[in-house]
Q: What sequence folds into this?
């Protein structure tokens, strides 16, 4: 077994995790965002032939689609993942739709008022013109050969407008599939499109979740320890863990998506687990604190390894099936668990031991 | 301690009955029984009772899986998921309304296999158990388009959805209603007003049949039992004449046939698109016969095939609701609107059933429902359609098979790891036994909701994380110099309780975020921690002697 690493000048132990954290901080700007958070279209193909990825990418680019293509071999066949970034047309269509919906009720109300009250006519005409120009822009984007003022009433305009919006989406997917068809043969495919509005919604939700999780964790940790230094140490441990996991994600190209986001949150809980075990053992047990730290390490490392074993199984499964959800969760968890070994026993243990020995 | 055993037995029977009778709530009942039994077995001192309580939970979990089966997400069963994102968060009532509207519209189109469920407060998931592009595009159409509203008076469309100005439809405060319980006002366009005025001229006290997505080319086939299910006076002639008046229309009548009266083989479809609307309980063989004759079959849920008829002021019997054909309400025309002069503003008002608060709620619901019909079944909150995912069924099955293998591999790997670490069968066997029990409980609970990819990942993770609690207790018990076994157990429990609390609270915001894609992961992680507290803890307390006195 490992010797007691806390026997000598244990402050030196902080060097490795600190180095990891510094490297991670340098890496984090390279972090990639998945379709969930960035918006765009993800096409997954079960290939039956070969695929020239560079040719496909170039062809997509010449049609105005910025893309990334990956091919994996696995037990369920060869899978290709083609990720196409959000196009300007879609972003504009989303914005137009929001403006249109905001204005529609007002215009229709003004129309009703203008029947009884001719004074409202001018205001109605002005708003109606504004609404028409939004609709005309949407029709133009959808390639529809019509004008808003040709529609007999607001209901027809509204129906046509939502048709146009859908048309823009399906036209784009059709175009992408057409280009793919020219390059690949496949027996099944799935597409996933995340609109700009939806990705903003996810970012918003994720931000809220992180905020609440952080607040709850801080409150609970302070509630359980009721002393600033150990509480701070526990939180520093969890924070370092997340930084290292994010660094590893940037290094290995694991995108930040909904599943990897969930895995990061789970890491907070896991990291706090080992930190709490360590802090309780050092502060509450009788006897030599260094021995206690070492004992805690034996238990904590066993815990970490059992989690590592389970996530390795998931990782192996991800390699076999190429299910992105499995891959993203297991890879992030593994990176974070390894990071947690260094962060907990290199930084956290040192802070709490130092605190305990100084206070006696 | 016979009483405790009694309590245990009675509780077990109660929970088992609950799981068998209320399959829809089996998951929640199981979680509840886990908490009750878990708490009892921590509280009771007797070893055998602790173990008995744990065995009871595992047994309940197995019963649930055996009787109610397990639900899998479309990732494993194949199909298409279309998330619908609301543009602003909805209250519980509004959310219920939205889910109902989508369900109703889907069933009017015969899309009964479509599953609609609310997720959090700003998302609704629509799932289609198939990858059929036609079916999916009709669902997408349904979600992104308004329905078609038709107000029919005496066989003529008096008011179309196009004639109504959408922004003007709103409830009228009771104070302005002159005695009615609820009212909805709306304005119509210039063309709409003129058309309405001329169509309803001289039709005072006629019902205005309000249809949403009325089929144009269809027949209805139903049994007399179905036709008369909601009728107070069970008179065929009377019912038939009421049906006829409601279903006649210039653009295409809908004819009603009684199953026991008509010779089905004599029916001929009017065109190659004629629909035959039938109920869920009509025999399969009759359906295929109709299909062979050239009808397109539209299957409607049993309760929706039965019309509602009531007697109006003039003594006439009027069909006022018949979901199978899209007839949703039939207010009566006030003489003042039938004189022939166009008017731009109208109010539909009515009385509500019940007394006191119940009456208010009914009035509110009636008004909301009329608003929704006039808006063409528009949802109360704007929506956008999210990322559509399609999984072919064979691929889903393969994913499930491999995932289950992965699950067992994880379990075996963890067992091997623990045996290398502790090298004592006395410690090893309980750890494995507890891990397996936890896995069964977890699968049973999550299977009652839905196991999707994220949930499966969470279950595999929980095998690794769930064993943590056992490692903490075992290591603590093996320390001979730290007080009595009981003290050491207490120390371990403090650590576990703290850990579980923190881990659960860190995940709770994710559970309530409504991010449906990863909610399964949040649930299984939280359940995994909770099991450490409710299963490992008492089980170890029961086995403590064995491990510590080695």
A:
């Amino acid at each position: 077994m490992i010797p007691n690493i806390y026997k000598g000048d244990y402050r030196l132990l902080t060097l490795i995790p600190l180095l990891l954290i510094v490297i991670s901080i340098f890496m984090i700007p390279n972090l990639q965002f998945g379709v969930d958070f960035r918006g765009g279209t993800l096409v997954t193909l079960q290939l039956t032939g070969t695929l020239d990825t560079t040719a496909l990418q170039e062809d997509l680019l010449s049609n105005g689609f910025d893309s990334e293509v990956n091919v994996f071999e696995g037990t369920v066949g060869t899978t290709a993942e083609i990720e196409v970034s959000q196009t300007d047309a879609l972003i504009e269509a989303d914005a137009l739709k929001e403006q249109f919906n905001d204005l529609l009720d007002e215009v229709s109300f003004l129309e009703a008022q203008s029947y009884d009250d001719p004074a409202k006519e001018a205001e109605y005409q002005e708003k109606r013109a504004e609404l028409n120009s939004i609709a005309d822009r949407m029709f133009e984007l959808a390639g529809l050969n019509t004008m808003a003022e040709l529609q007999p009433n607001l209901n027809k305009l509204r129906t046509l407008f939502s048709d146009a919006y859908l048309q823009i989406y399906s036209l784009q997917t059709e175009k992408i599939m057409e280009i793919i068809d020219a390059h690949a043969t496949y027996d099944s495919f799935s597409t996933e499109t995340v609109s700009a509005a939806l990705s903003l919604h996810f970012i918003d939700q994720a931000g809220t979740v992180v905020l609440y999780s952080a607040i709850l964790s801080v409150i609970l940790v302070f509630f359980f320890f009721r002393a600033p230094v150990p509480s701070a140490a526990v939180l520093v441990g969890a924070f370092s863990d997340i930084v290292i996991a994010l660094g590893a994600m940037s290094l290995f190209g694991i995108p930040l998506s909904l599943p990897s986001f969930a895995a990061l949150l789970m890491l907070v809980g896991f990291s706090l687990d080992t930190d709490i075990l360590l802090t309780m053992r050092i502060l509450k047990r009788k006897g030599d604190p260094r021995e206690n730290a070492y004992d805690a390490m034996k238990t904590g490392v066993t815990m970490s390894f059992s989690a590592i074993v389970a996530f390795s199984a998931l990782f192996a499964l991800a390699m076999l099936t190429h299910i992105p959800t499995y891959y993203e969760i297991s890879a992030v968890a593994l990176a974070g668990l390894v990071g947690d070994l260094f962060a907990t026993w290199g930084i956290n243990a040192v802070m709490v031991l130092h605190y305990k020995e100084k206070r006696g | 301690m016979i009483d405790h055993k009694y309590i245990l037995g009675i509780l077990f029977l109660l929970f088992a009955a609950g799981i068998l009778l209320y399959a829809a709530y089996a998951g929640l009942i199981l979680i509840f029984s886990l908490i009750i039994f878990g708490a009892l077995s921590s509280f009771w001192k007797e070893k055998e009772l602790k173990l008995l309580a744990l065995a009871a939970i595992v047994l309940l979990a197995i019963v649930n899986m055996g009787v109610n089966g397990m639900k899998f997400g479309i990732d494993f069963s194949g199909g298409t998921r279309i998330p619908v994102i609301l543009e602003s968060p909805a209250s519980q009532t509004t959310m219920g309304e939205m889910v109902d509207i989508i369900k109703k519209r889907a069933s009017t189109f015969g899309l009964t296999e479509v599953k609609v469920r609310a997720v959090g407060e700003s998302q609704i998931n629509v799932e289609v158990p198939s990858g059929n592009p036609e079916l999916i595009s009709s669902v997408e159409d349904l979600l992104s388009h308004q329905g078609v509203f038709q107000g029919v008076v005496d066989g003529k469309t008096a008011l179309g959805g196009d004639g109504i100005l959408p922004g003007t439809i709103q409830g009228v405060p009771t104070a302005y209603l002159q005695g009615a319980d609820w009212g909805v006002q709306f304005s119509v366009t210039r063309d709409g007003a003129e058309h309405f005025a001329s169509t309803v001229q001289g039709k005072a006290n006629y019902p205005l049949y309000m249809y949403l997505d009325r089929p144009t080319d269809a027949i209805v086939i139903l049994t007399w039992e179905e036709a008369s299910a909601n009728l107070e006076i069970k008179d065929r002639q009377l019912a038939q004449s009421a049906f006829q008046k409601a279903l006649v229309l210039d653009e295409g009548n809908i004819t009603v046939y009684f199953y026991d009266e008509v010779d089905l083989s004599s029916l001929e479809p009017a065109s190659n698109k004629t629909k035959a609307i039938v109920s869920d309980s009509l025999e399969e063989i009759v359906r295929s016969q109709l299909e062979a004759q050239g009808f397109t079959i539209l299957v409607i849920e049993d309760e929706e095939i039965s019309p509602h008829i009531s007697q109006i002021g003039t003594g006439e019997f009027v069909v006022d609701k018949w979901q199978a054909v899209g007839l949703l309400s039939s207010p009566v025309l006030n003489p003042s609107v039938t004189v022939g002069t166009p008017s731009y503003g109208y109010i539909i008002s009515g009385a509500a059933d019940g007394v006191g608060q119940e009456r208010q709620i009914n009035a509110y619901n009636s008004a909301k429902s009329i608003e929704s019909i006039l808006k063409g079944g528009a949802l109360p909150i704007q929506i956008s359609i999210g990322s559509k995912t399609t999984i072919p069924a064979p691929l889903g099955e393969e994913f499930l098979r491999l995932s289950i293998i992965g699950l067992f591999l994880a379990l075996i790997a963890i067992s091997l790891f623990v045996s290398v670490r502790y090298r004592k069968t006395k410690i090893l066997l309980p750890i494995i036994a507890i891990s397996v029990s936890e896995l069964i409980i977890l699968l049973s609970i999550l299977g009652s909701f839905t196991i999707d990819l994220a949930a499966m990942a969470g279950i595999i993770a929980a095998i690794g994380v769930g064993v943590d609690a056992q490692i903490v207790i075992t290591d603590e018990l093996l320390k001979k110099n730290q007080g009595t076994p009981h003290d050491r157990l207490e120390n371990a429990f403090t650590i576990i309780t703290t850990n579980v609390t923190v881990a659960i609270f860190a995940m709770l915001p994710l559970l309530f975020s409504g991010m449906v894609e990863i909610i399964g992961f949040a649930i299984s992680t939280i359940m995994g921690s909770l099991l450490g507290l409710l299963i490992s803890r008492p089980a170890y307390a029961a086995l403590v002697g064995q491990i510590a006195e080695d």
The longest strand of chain B covers residues 79-86. Chain B touches chain A through 90 residues (CB under 8 Å). Chain B has three domains: 2-73+392-548, 79-143, 148-377.
